[in-house]
Amino acid sequence: MAKTQVIPVIMSGGAGSRLWPASRKSRPKQLLPLASQQTMIQETALRLQHQGNAYSFADPMIVCNHANADAIAKQLGEIGISASTMITEPVARNTAPCAVIAALAILAESSDRSPEPLMLLAPADHHIKNTTEFRRVVGQAVPAARSGHMVTFGITVTKPETGYGYIQKGAKLDDHAHRVAGFKEKPDLDTAKTYMASGNYFWNAGIFMCKPSSLLAEMRQHSPEILQACQRAFDASPQSSGQSAGQTIALDADTFARCPAISIDYALMERTNKACVVEAHMGWSDIGSWSALLELTKDMSGNALKGDVHILDTKNCLIHSDGPFVATIGIDNLAVVVHDGAVLIANLDQVQDVKKIVDELTRRRDKDRL
Amino acid sequence: MAKTQVIPVIMSGGAGSRLWPASRKSRPKQLLPLASQQTMIQETALRLQHQGNAYSFADPMIVCNHANADAIAKQLGEIGISASTMITEPVARNTAPCAVIAALAILAESSDRSPEPLMLLAPADHHIKNTTEFRRVVGQAVPAARSGHMVTFGITVTKPETGYGYIQKGAKLDDHAHRVAGFKEKPDLDTAKTYMASGNYFWNAGIFMCKPSSLLAEMRQHSPEILQACQRAFDASPQSSGQSAGQTIALDADTFARCPAISIDYALMERTNKACVVEAHMGWSDIGSWSALLELTKDMSGNALKGDVHILDTKNCLIHSDGPFVATIGIDNLAVVVHDGAVLIANLDQVQDVKKIVDELTRRRDKDRL
Is the pTM of this model over 0.95? Predict the structure, then answer.
């Protein structure tokens, strides 16, 4: 059997507004160095570099907002990676159109290739501590994906988290994959505890692997109108080759705007009977809030400090500054983030309300702070 | 009896480092608008404008660090006040040399004037809510001062404050003045409660009134070496008339540096038997910390907000910004001050430790943040 090629499709369309004020429209979460010295998309692209026995990653395909394309290409260039294709979105349309158009683009490029490459859909802004384990479970998912299944990676539950969706494990499919018995919305705490105790649930990390042709076939069966809208947008969009190796597909504004904004979970994974799950225990975090980042990066005193910070009697705090000197005295359980003309001081138990601040700035049309 | 002239001597040599990061070397506390739209020295100078039946204030004399003289003259100009004399200090030497040199300067100017004017020594950085009452008690103090006493204004105690020195009331001198039975250092809480319950104690606000000749005579008796050092510095210092009305006395660096750095309280008030006190109930605050400023300026929710601030679920907080947008979520009892490239977040019960931050910056020789 020929070695499988896996084409990473890095989904970089998100805004990450829960990490305001570091995250801005022109510099969304995936472009920030949050968990390490590298930006999230750099971490992601490096994780997706691998030439193994079971499979090889190809150069990545990037799907992003057109406003961020140059910044992303620059960041990838800094780590010696060039995208095979940049697909730029004029507006945000969630993950289903992104996945479908990536599949169309891959098949247009590699229709003559055998075997058909797999596509790995991965968010650009997640942290995975154990890269070796990630690459190993991708290999474990290859047989299921090659046999026409839509593989999702289920993260081992380590606490009764109420902020994530869950995947319920069903019947065994092969050595590593199980069928998906169901997708569950964010549960309340009691339900989350039940899920965790049962051992039959995983966190849904939004990472998927499948054949592009399988994805399109399943879309045709379960969400034909979305497939059709995406096909129209793809056909209407000009493709160009850049000065560097890759090509750019600038999605046509009119036709892409008509694609429904819907996630691949809703549009396909919850409807198809081809969904399966491979368990991954790899130190995953979506860094969905300042408290999640503190958990990931805290030192022995429970603090995570970045920039010119001087603390007195301070514990369990995340304190980041992109320049100004920050001094703290006698504080506990706070996020303090100073970034580009804006300052956030938030109780870490209420960091979900950062979105309300962003909403207020949006209402004000305060472009400088968005 | 001819109407008494009172020459305000505004002591503006302090740094006010407890209000860092708003207060800096080049822009000390008295140059900041803290309790109102006016800066503290503007508030002080306006308070000291009065033509009454019992006395009249003359144009003020300013004693300040030479580095701040231009800024002070500019701020006074903004409110239509010009100093009669600017005495500039090359180094800080506390209040005794300041008071002595001011007395020498007044006598040099007005040796032929009869009756001798009084001098009113007032810190530039205190807030007094009730200006009318202040001016009234100054009038009440005139007879004692004219009869050769050193009058101090004793603030009515309204809480058992441990951060101030206290003045103990002695025998009655006239309708308004009592002799001082003793000066007390900052007490512990139990002692402060005893002071408050007795009704015989006042807060020492550091505001004094006397004849310049009395001050010099008492200094000659109780601190002759300080008087001598100050006389040498005064004699060695060039006086010049500026383009505006007033004159400038630039204190000679060598001789002034040899004056001991000591307060007028220690050098004179605690030693002389001419000290007396006039009670003043006028809404006085030295704004000695961010928590004191919050007490003075808080709204119904217990917050004092200044600048571009957006709060959610926030109470009992002082939040000041000189530019950057500040958003807070779920915080209580904090000072948040964003000023000129520095950010302070401090528990309001520990604001005295702001000094430790300034000490750290001094150790680092971080001129940009001092």
Answer: no
